[in-house]
Amino acid sequence: MTQFENPYSPPTTFAPISSLVESGELATLSERFAGSFIDGLIILPIVLPLAFGAGLVIGSALGDSLITNVVASVVGGLISMGAFAALHGYLLATRGQTIGKVIMKTKIVNEAGNLLPFNELFLKRYVIIMVISMIPFVGSLIGIVDALCVFRGNRKCLHDDFAGTKVIKIVG
């Protein structure tokens, strides 16, 4: 520092906001599983009481019937999607990450390596598979197929195929 430089002036060069850098390398199976597991552990205590309470209210209002089960299923799905969006929406929109992905240092990008707009990401990657999984009998099977698809060479789940996404590692 010369005698004319003010030691209290702001720096003339700026460090990057984040030291995290995308590696471009696909996330491992264990990183994907752990991120998803963490997200599940976080959202479960929020969604279960809300969905259970909604089910009780719907059941007492409509009685025990097929329509009650369908309405309760739809309301439970809407509660789940709303809670997921409230919990992870900001991170998904700004960083392509859920809380579990932040912890596991992974992120969701499109095939070109760019973030997707939140609406497109949420609709194609999450809502479609949630709606399909609510279909009686078939939905459970699709949920299993979705998860098992990660064992393919491209490490993509079915929801990644729907949205045109991949999950990559972040280093830093």
Task: Describe it.
This protein has 172 residues and is mostly helical. It has helices at residues 29-62, 66-95, 99-104, 118-133, 138-148, 158-163; strands at 21-26, 106-110, 165-171. It has one domain (21-171). Helix content is 60%, strand content 10%. Helix 4 packs across helix 5. The radius of gyration is 21 Å and the shape is globular. The two termini are 30 Å apart.
Question: What are the key terms here?
Answer:
3-stranded antiparallel β-sheet, 6 helices, single chain, mainly alpha, 172 residues
Number of strand elements: 3
Main beta-sheet annotation = 3 strands, antiparallel
Give the overall form: globular
N-to-C CA distance: 30 Å
Write the layout of secondary structure elements.
Layout: E1 21-26, H1 29-62, H2 66-95, H3 99-104, E2 106-110, H4 118-133, H5 138-148, H6 158-163, E3 165-171
Antiparallel strand pairs: 1-3, 2-3
Gist?
This protein is mostly helical. The chain is built from 6 helices and 3 strands; from the N terminus they run E-H-H-H-E-H-H-H-E. It has one domain.
